[in-house]
Structure formats: structure tokens, C-alpha cells
Amino acid sequence: MTQALSSPLTLCVLLLTAWGIIGLAGLVRPASVSFVGRTLFPLGAVCGAALAYVAMTGLAAPAEHVVLPIGLPDLPVHLRLDGLSAAFLFLLGAAATGISIFAAGYFRRGEGTPPGLMCLQYHLFLASMGFVLLADDAYGFMLAWETMALSSYFLVTTQHRIPDIRSAGFLYLLIAHVGAIAILLSFGVMQGGSWRFTFDAMRAAHLEPAWAAVAFLLALFGFGAKAGLVPMHVWLPEAHPAAPSPVSALMSGVMLKTALYGLLRVTFNLLGEPAWWWGLIPLALGLFTALYGVIFAAAQTDMKRLLAYSSIENIGIIFSGVGLAIVFAGVDMRTAASLALIAVLYHALNHAFMKSLLFLGTGAVLHATGERNLGRLGGLIHRMPWVAWLTLVGALAIAGLPPLNGFVSEWLLLQSFLFANEVPRAFVNMLLPLGAALLVLAAALAGYVMVKFFGVIFLGQPRETALRTAHDAGVVERIGLAWLALGCVLLGLLPTQIIPVLSRVIQPLGFSGLTLDDRSWWLLVPLAQKQTSYAPLAFLAVILAVVLLTIAAVRFFYHQRVRQGAPWDCGFGRLNSRMQDTAEGFGQPIRHLFNPFFAMLRELPSPFDTTPRYRVVIGDRIWRGLYLPIGALVRRVANAVAWLQQGRIATYLLYSFVTLVTLLALML
Amino acid sequence: MSPFDWVAQILGILAALLAAPLFLGWVNQCRAWLQNKSAPPLIQPYRGIRKLFYKDAVIAANASRLFRLAPYVVFGTMVTAAAIIPSIATRLPFTKAADAIALVGLFATARVFVSLAAMDVGTAFGTLGARREMMIGFLAEPALLMVIFVASLISATTALPAISELLATQSLALYPSLAFTAVAFTMCCWPRTHASRSTTRRRISN
Fold first, then answer.
1. Which domain holds residue A410?
2. What is the pLDDT of residues A221-255, one digit of tens each?
3. Do the domain assignments include residue A302?
């Protein structure tokens, strides 16, 4: 089968290969920051933009196959580009563009690893994520999946001289591989006795309902571990903050979405018709994850950890949408299922932009101040106005405020929750509206978290004197941030243009999609019979018009006597910037309200202590209750097995002899 | 859309704007009575606004542009909210642009900007007020949305005019859920007004 050179699939493969070549080119002059930063990363950004464009043309095109003659004998790599792959490739390309532009400025100084090597790992990471999205057989998928895990592991451990980062990387690698085993087993179940591991064979295989459920649960476990679904989330708040900021942005913004892609591919494409009750598991886990993530985010004092927990929250929202789509699809409510799945894809796209933007914002702050601890930041809006205002866009978007993009997807998801009382299953239709309540609680808490995040870093007075000399991000970094912020704004304002595209994406998966009214390009009416509508452009126009009118009216009517003065200090006279409320203070009501979630260790000094130190350590109950016992069990088993290791050659010869005799006895 | 609808829209916004301080005065009266105090007159908030128009504005020396912008954004979102809610007519042109969920989102936007402005000056009290405002917010917001959701589940839509038309025009039907909802709505409105008031006070005192 020959492919035209200009077909989207060929172009995608070429662009991904180009990423690989750019990465290898980094090894030519590995120590040269200017070569890597000024030449290679911008080239990578160009590739990303081209990939996003090509994927956009591939969204509407019919599915394409290609078989690459590489790999093991008799196991060529199958690639396929369909709507779902194209949608996620667009996400990868568009987000990678902004991140690579930012990285071009960010990696100027070089971190622990030489810049050339970092460039190789970074671009290998990008290319492997692309091949995960294109793979059409289990072999190619796992190859790309493992490359993705390993390249990101090396990126996480860039500063490998710090022990904490090494252990974070180890935990990440461990859970990634436990998840990968589950995915591999899931593929093993799905081949259904044909022993052919192409996705085409899996689509054709007919599984018993019980085996299909096993395959689904294994896939949910495997992909959930990669996505950071509770209780497999523990690696995420360790690994994401450990990486350099552009890498954190890629991991949170894009890599978590490849796990979502895998779950969607398995559930709706490879397994065929999902049973309705499958959906309850991701729905319940997703809602719990959303709440868990946002509560822990509110209690964090490290800005990158805060964002990592916020990623867990968003993954929870996305997975609850997937669960809802499965439930609706299982009981044959086609419109509702389409709405939920479109909300999922939309939120995945939104999250890629806003979380990348926020992580890059923290990167700029980190470079300017050298501080990640929220307790030592503050007042940066004066010194870093560009970073502050662009980050504000991301913060408002992720808090789900209209008319930015986070609101649109949460709105769509809530609309699909409104179908819940039509589900023809008793109890389920009663409990589902409670899910909507949990979702709204998580979204409202996200607003709290974002006020804390933005307010403590950028507003108020600088908590350290060193912050008064902080510098704004460079021009290149600003362009990267602005690209992502623009994405947030456009995704928020143009849902009527984006939803029909997503609707076409999910139609090959057996969904009816949504038919929007073509005449109203500005008014989003997802469901004509429900009369519900949302018009972000009109919304923004009215708010802007009122704001401008009010400003004009104030100019006209008000006497304009505005004085500047010192803020009132309650007559105390010696207020200083250390007396502002802290990140810990912001966490305090959360720690009280959601006390059962936390395993807290507090050191309260006595009133007579002359050098008092207040300390609170927030632990994860799941880590103590689940992971430590498993770790202890593994250690005990390992100790028991270690008894076999006697260290004497005679013993080992005896083992071989006994094994041989046993085998012979079995054969005969 | 007839011209009459546009007139009704603008009249509705103006009515909401003019009557809003009256409502605040009434809530203050109720609160005073419940605390066994003598209540201020109903029009006290209007007097306060008039006084503020004559006074000089004082802005903290280290306030950023966000602080200057926030009051306008809050006012803009509140006017937009008044435009969405069908108060004197249901066939308003602008109600299509947003539904009940967007309304809650608008309130959240206003609250976020109030809180950010409170944190901007960087005094001990401003940030405390911001934190409290957001805490009340994340507790009241889901409750408010659930209140609207009950009506939405009955009428199968979140569009406010459709909800009010359906509930107003259908033949008499008793919904116990709506009664509970009314109680819940009152309960979640109460802390909202209280918290924003105390925060605002702190901000002004800053």
C-alpha cells in the first residue's frame, strides 16, 4: 500500500521523525546552550505547530493505515490516523508549540543534565507521545508507551544529584511499569484467542462479557496509573514538581492525556460496546479523584506541587466524564453519551493549555526568584507584569470562570449530568445528580486554589527582600506563554466552532454526535430540545461594554480625587510583609473542613518556648494506608526469598540439579 | 425579538441596579432585628453610596492595576447577572447568552476578583478577608447550583426563562423538592451577603 506523500498520516510520521532528528542533533554540540536553545527548540516548536495543523486537516479525513517495515521479524509496526488520534495529536502539537518556544528561552542556563542530552530526551518524549497516539498494534503501542515513560523518567531526574528527585523518579518509574503491565495484560485479553496483536484483530474479536469487563478494568488500572487516578496518584505530586518546568508542563498538559486517549481507544473502539455498569467505576473514582486532588492542592505550600495536585483534580473531572459517557452509551442514550464524551475531549484540550500555561508561569517565577515555596514569594505582579497577567488568564480559566475555556467544558459536563434522571436504572438515576454536586464542589474549590496560587505568588507585598530584584521573563518565554493564553481564550470563546469538530471525531466510535444549529455561529445550543444555550462572545461583549461604560461614567461624574496612601495598619505601626496571610493560612480552613482526608503531623510550640517553630506536615492517607503496607509486604517476601541466596556455589549447583530432575520427572 | 423586549431588558437591568441597595438595607434590617438591635433605615445603603461619591478615593501605595480593575469587573459581572435573570419579563434578548450555570459562574468571577483585589494590597486583613470570602464561596456555590439543579431536573433545562415559564404556566403541581430548595436557597444567600459585606468593610478600612 503506497501512501501519497501529502496524506496527513505520512506528514505526521515525518514530523514526529523530525522531532527525533532534532533531538539527536542536540548531541552534536551537547554543551552549547545557544545552539540547543536558539536553534533546536525553536525548530521543535515549528514542528509542533506543523503537527497541530496537519492533525487539524486529519480530523475530518477518513481513517488511514500504514504498515512500517520496522520492528521484529513478522511484527511490523502498524500506524493508523483517525479522528480520535488526530484530536489528541492536535493537542500534542499545539501545546508542544507553546512549551517548546518557552523552553527555548528557559533552558538558557542549563539544568543538571547537559542541554544537548536534555534536548534529546525532550524531543524523544514528544515523538514517543505522538507514536502512542498513532500506534495501531499492541507491539508498537507498548514500544512507544515505554519510550515515553523512560524519556520522561530521565527528564524528571534532570537534577539527579538531589536525593528527593531520584526517589521521585524511582516512584514514577515503578508505578509507570505496574501500569504498563496492566495495559499489556489488557491487550492480551483483548486479542481474544486469535493471538494477533493488531488493533484491527482486537476490533474484530468478540469477547465474552466477563472477559471484556476484565480487559476494561485492566485498561482502567493501567491508564489510570499513568493519568494519576486515585489511588494510583502518588507518583504525580512527586514527579511533576521535580522536573524542569517545561517538562512538568508537558507531563501534566500532554502526557496525562495520552492515558486518557488509551482508555478511550480501548473502551469505545477496541472493546466495541461497553456495558453500562463499567462506567460507574471511572465515574466514582473520577469524582473522588477530583475532590481529593483539589483538597490537597488547597493545602500545598509548594507552587509546583499545588499545580500537580490540581492536575489530579482535572484528571478526575475528565475520568468522571468518561464514566458518564460509558453509562449513557450502555443504556443507549446516544445524545447524552455524545455530550459527555465531547465534554471529556474538550476538557482534555482545555487542560493541556491552561495547565501548561500555569506550569510555565511557575517556571518563569522559579527562574526569576529561585523560590518554589509559596511562603517566600509575593508581590511579583509589580516586577513580572507579563508573567503575572498571562498566568492570571490560566488561573481564571482553570478555576472554571466564564467566558474562558475551563467553564465551557465544565458546563458541557454539567449539562450531561442533567440527563442522569433519565437513566433507566433504579438508584443510579438517583445517585448521579449527587455526582454533579461533587463536581461543582471540586470546581468551586478549584477557584479557591487558584486565588491562593495567584494571590500568594503575584499579589501583596514581597515576602523576601530578594524578590524586589526579580526580573520579568524574556521575550521568547513571553511568546510561549502568550501562545498558550491565546489558546485558553479562543477555546473559551469559540465553542460553536470546536464542538462540531469534536462531534465528528467521536462519530466513528459509535456515537451520534451533536448537531448544532449552523445559523447561530455565536450561540451554543448543544441540545435543541433542551433550550439551553450559552454565548461566550455575547457574554464577554456585555461584560466589556459594562466595564468600559462604567469607567467612562466614573471619569465623567466622579471628581477624580484619588490619593495614594500607606495601607491602614490598625494603628499597630510596625506591620511588615511577613505578616501577610500565608499559603499555610490559606490551607487552614481546608485542613479543618476536610480533616479526615489528611494525615497531619503538627508541631505546636509551647507558649514559653523562646525560639518557637510552628511546623505542619501534610501526609497522604492513601500513601500510609496502602503503599507502605504493600512495600512492607514486598520487603517481607523478598527477605523470605533471599533465604535461597546462600552464596555457595554448591547450593546453586544443587538448585540446578533439582530443577533438572523435576523437569525430567514432569516430562516422563 | 421585538423592540419591546430590548426595552424590557434595559428596564430590567436598571430596576435591578436601583433596587439592589434596597435589598441590602432590608437584609441589614433583618439581621439587626434578629440580634435585638434597633435597625438602620431601609435607605441607609443609598446614603452610604452618596457619601462615598463625595469622598476622596484612597488607594494603597503598592496596589497594582488589578486593584483598580477589580471593582469594574465586579460591577460588570453583576450587571450581566441582572441581565440574565428574568425578573420583569421572560422573553429577554440576553437571557439566551447564559443559563443558570453561567450565572453561578458569573458570581464566582465576581468573588474571585474581589478576593484578588483584597490580596493585592498585602496587609494582614485583606488576605484574611479574601480567604474567608473564597471559603464561603466554595461552600455556597455548589449549594446554589444544586438549588438551581432541582428546578432544572423538573423542567429538564438550565435556561432560566424556560424554567420560570414552565413553573409559572403549568397547571398546579406540588413539588416538595422545590420547598426544600427554597429553604436551602435562603440559607445559602444569607452567608453570601454577610461574608462579602465584612470583606468589603475590611477592604475599605485597608
1. 332-556+580-592
2. 999 999 999 889 999 999 999 988 999 999 999 99
3. no
